[in-house]
Amino acid sequence: MTSRELLESFPAPGVLQLTLDRPQVHNAISLSLQRALDERLTRAAAEEAVRVVVLTGAGTSAFSAGYDLRELEALSSQENLEAMLEREELLWRYVEFPKPTIAAVRGMAYGAGTLLAACSDLRVGGPSTTLTVTAAKYGGANLTWLLDTLIGAGQTRDLLMTSRAVTGAEAYRIGLLTRYADDGDVLAAALEAAEQIAAQPAEAIREIKSLLLTGYGTDLRSRYDRENTAARTTLRPRPVAEMFGEFFGAPAGID
Asked: How large is the average pLDDT for residues 246-253?
């Protein structure tokens, strides 16, 4: 157990599962929970045993209902401002976490729950999944900097300007979910994806994520050159026989 509100487990080699554990409030994200998540991810970034992180919510009714409104109501205006500024940095550190993240979105993702899901590298859901970006309802704006890279400009305007809930089936159709499974299999499907990623060379996966994160807003040639530079330097090509050992070890006639 990482904290009273965040559980951790290792369901497969290289896979760290972190569970938002506040089911009594639909896994609403308190400031202490978000800090605990940040602290655990900071340690995980340096742990060779952790190759992929799967984030989910306790139970099946909610991934997360968003920020804990009862907690926010009890804060003064200044305290709310300070909490907002801290949360902005905590969310950005989640985006920049150097290893792949997968959100297993069982049930409802509302407000900040959708922010965490959208900021994950992969999102897995099912028929009972619903996602909502709620900011416009309250005179705010969220995910204008990211959502269009996931689902396109038109769909982004629709979701952000209407604050409507998107069902799992629609979310998968428009690309907001990257994998879709039966309700009882959402976490299993997320863990399957995590195992597939964990089986790849860790340095390659880290570089792929870094290249994707730094590519937004730059021209195509710059992205192309940066990838090729990484392939020649950070990833340093290994001997062909080593890289393709599985191929050379296969029986004759096998492609």
From this structure: 59
